[in-house]
């Protein structure tokens, strides 16, 4: 239990406007951080109001676990940091975690019945780093079960609404993470992206999200789906807000066997991304009216073929023209294996998932069936009763592609195609262009329930995001337009960079957001 | 290549999943669509291409670290309790499972 409120007691100067305690009343994390450091608002006030907003929120399924006492204890700790003058840019900032990150105190379910009551004995490294930076977590956000899905409809605890249109999906698998930012409940969230699970919901909900280079953010304490593809990243209202979040989350971690000690010779540690971001912004500032002069933007022609909605194509084209007006040059490139990234991913990811999810056996933790005959029967029944249909489907696919006689034809072939996909990206980024831009998704958010009877319809929608995961490249999504029947559904622009180029991607995204206001179209401003 | 329900039942056994006849029929139909997707991989000429297991191995040498073997100090009772609290069945600090050897 946290200490009673009387043990930490501050008096704050009366605010000029007493209603200014909602986090979204501040234009940025930097602005709210300054208000907190100037002690115009306290972390406790913010957390109290944010909890109330969460409890009154329009979507009862958005948060899977809220615990006021745990949140308020973090807020008091943040206020203590602020009072000591030790506060960094995130102290007191309200955030929330995707329920794939294990947390002490809050339950961690991965949106699965299998882990409905699971409470982790330790915090994920990302959770720990953000807490040490003084962030205040509002709780755990729904996602697709074990991060398998693109619409958040695979949560065992209820499908989510897109804040821009309750009849539409928020995307997935980090759907709750995108929806919570879009709804203005928190200023940042954690997500994970194995095949687009940060970028796609960010695009659908009109928020900014980044998947960093594989190996830069620790996977320790992130419930594993596809280990060679899983990578955590933040979501927020703007690229500028993503910077302190990603910078804090990043860094070498001995507990993750694929965590990188260095990135292009620079230590993988907090400060790396902020320094690169500031450096790039400095370069842009010296360009006068053409801040992006010299930048070569690769536009893959395969990202604009059949299947891309006109509204999305038009929005991307308009965004590219904004970059051109800022001095960048467009280069036509080819990523010929774009379409084949889908089968490669849907062999590799299920293969890794079938192995990772073998741990759920009803013995050490998780669900155990009440009735069984013997140990194998107990394991079979427990898994079948507690794992949802998409998870069981991917386990079966993974088991198939790894089984004797098919391993070479499917699994190794997929890994060979993976190398060819990675080589195509590398060749483009080494020789033709500095960054790659294109759509995140073929269309705007679909209606809920639309893909219920098609086992691969959602998979095909991952076409533009999978390449960055297969190649381990950093990639982000920022809002760049609106589409759909009432022109009310956000469209995302994807920017993919070279390995470890997160700072430049974020600086480019920030430059775009300095010249456009798509990222400010919050749901309540849209008719 | 289509899978039979017998094939699916065999996979379910390997994956420790229990499937009734409705599940098998559904899975068979799902697999038809899934296999038609993943079989397109066969159209790629990958002769001479090494399989890629780690996304950064084309860029830099990857050494997967193993942590040193070491004897940790015994866990505290509180730590043990935190782990066992998640166990579906536990007794005297042990995980309980159905009898395996009579």
Order of helices and strands of chain A: HHEHEHEHEHEEHEEHEHEHHHHEHHEEH
- What is the CATH architecture annotation of chain A? Alpha-Beta Complex
The helix content of chain A, as a percent range, equals 25-40%
Strand neighbour order, sheet with most strands of chain A:
1-3-2-4-6-5-12-13-11-9-10
Beta-strand fraction estimate of chain A: 5-15%
Total helical segments of chain B: 3
Rg of chain A to the nearest angstrom?
A: 22 Å
Q: Main sheet of chain B?
A: 2 strands, antiparallel
Number of strands of chain B: 2
Shape of chain B: flat
Number of β-strand runs of chain A: 13
CATH topology of chain A: Amidase signature (AS) enzymes
Number of domains of chain A: 1
Order of the strands making up the biggest sheet of chain B: 1-2
What value does the average pLDDT of chain A take?
A: 94
User: What's the Cα radius of gyration of chain B?
Assistant: 23 Å
Tell me roughly what share of residues is in helical segments of chain B: 25-40%
Derived structural class of chain B: mainly alpha
- The CATH superfamily of chain A turns out to be Amidase signature (AS) domain
Query: Separation of termini of chain B?
Result: 44 Å
């Amino acid at each position: 239990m946290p200490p009673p409120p009387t043990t930490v007691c501050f008096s704050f100067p009366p605010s000029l406007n007493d209603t200014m305690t909602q986090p979204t009343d501040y234009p940025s994390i930097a602005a709210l951080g300054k208000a907190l450091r100037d002690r115009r608002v306290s972390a406790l006030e913010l957390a109290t109001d944010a909890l109330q907003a969460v409890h009154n929120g329009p979507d009862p399924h958005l948060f899977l676990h809220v615990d006021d006492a745990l949140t308020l204890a973090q807020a008091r700790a943040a206020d203590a940091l602020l009072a000591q003058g030790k506060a960094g840019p995130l102290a007191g900032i309200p955030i929330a975690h995707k329920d794939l990150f294990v947390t002490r105190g809050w339950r961690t379910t991965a949106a699965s019945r299998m882990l409905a009551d699971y409470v982790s004995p330790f915090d994920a490294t990302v959770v720990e780093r953000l807490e040490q930076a003084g962030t205040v977590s509002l709780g755990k956000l729904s996602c697709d079960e074990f991060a398998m899905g693109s619409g958040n409809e695979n949560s065992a605890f209820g499908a989510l609404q897109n804040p821009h249109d309750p009849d539409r999906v928020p995307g997935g698998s980090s759907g709750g993470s995108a929806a919570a930012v879009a709804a203005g409940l928190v200023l940042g969230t954690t997500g994970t992206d194995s095949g687009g699970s940060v970028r796609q919901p960010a695009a659908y909900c009109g928020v900014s999200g980044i998947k960093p280079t594989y190996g830069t953010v620790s996977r320790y304490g992130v419930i594993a789906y596809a280990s060679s593809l899983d990578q955590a990243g933040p979501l927020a209202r703007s690229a500028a807000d993503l910077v302190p979040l990603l910078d804090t989350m990043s860094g070498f971690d001995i507990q993750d066997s694929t965590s990188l000690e260095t990135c292009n010779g620079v230590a993988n540690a907090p400060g790396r991304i902020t320094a690169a971001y500031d450096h790039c912004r400095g370069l842009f500032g010296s360009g006068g009216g053409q801040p992006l002069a010299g930048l070569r933007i690769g536009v893959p022609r395969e990202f604009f073929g059949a299947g891309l909605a006109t509204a999305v194509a038009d929005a991307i084209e308009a965004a590219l023209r904004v970059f051109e007006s800022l001095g960048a040059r467009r280069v036509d490139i080819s990523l010929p294996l774009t379409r084949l990234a889908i089968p490669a991913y849907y062999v590799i990811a299920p293969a890794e998932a079938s192995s990772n999810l073998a741990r759920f056996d009803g013995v050490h933790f998780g669900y155990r069936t009440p009735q069984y005959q013997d140990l194998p029967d107990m394991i079979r029944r427990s898994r079948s009763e507690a794992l949802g249909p998409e998870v069981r489907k991917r386990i079966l696919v993974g088991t198939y592609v790894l089984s004797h006689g098919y391993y070479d034809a499917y699994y190794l072939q997929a890994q060979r195609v993976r190398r060819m996909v990675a080589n195509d990206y590398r060749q483009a980024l080494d020789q033709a262009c500095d960054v790659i831009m294109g759509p995140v998704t073929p269309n705007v958010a679909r209606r809920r329930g639309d893909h219920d009877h098609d086992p691969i319809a959602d998979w095909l929608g991952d076409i533009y995001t999978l390449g960055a995961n297969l190649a381990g490249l950093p990639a982000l999504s920022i809002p760049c337009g609106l589409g759909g029947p009432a022109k009310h559904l956000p469209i995302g622009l994807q920017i993919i960079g070279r390995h470890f180029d997160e700072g430049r991607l974020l600086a480019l995204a920030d430059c775009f957001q300095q010249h456009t206001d798509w990222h400010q179209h919050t749901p309540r401003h849209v008719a | 290549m289509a899978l039979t329900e017998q094939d699916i039942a065999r996979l379910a056994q390997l994956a420790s999943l229990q499937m009734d006849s409705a599940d098998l029929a559904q899975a068979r139909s799902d697999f038809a669509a899934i296999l038609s997707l993943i079989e397109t991989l066969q159209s790629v000429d990958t002769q001479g291409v090494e399989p890629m297991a780690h996304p950064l191995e084309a860029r830099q040498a990857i050494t997967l670290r193993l942590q040193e073997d070491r004897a940790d100090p015994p866990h505290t009772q509180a730590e043990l309790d935190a782990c066992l609290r998640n166990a579906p069945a536990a007794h005297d600090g042990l995980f309980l499972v159905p009898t395996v050897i009579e």
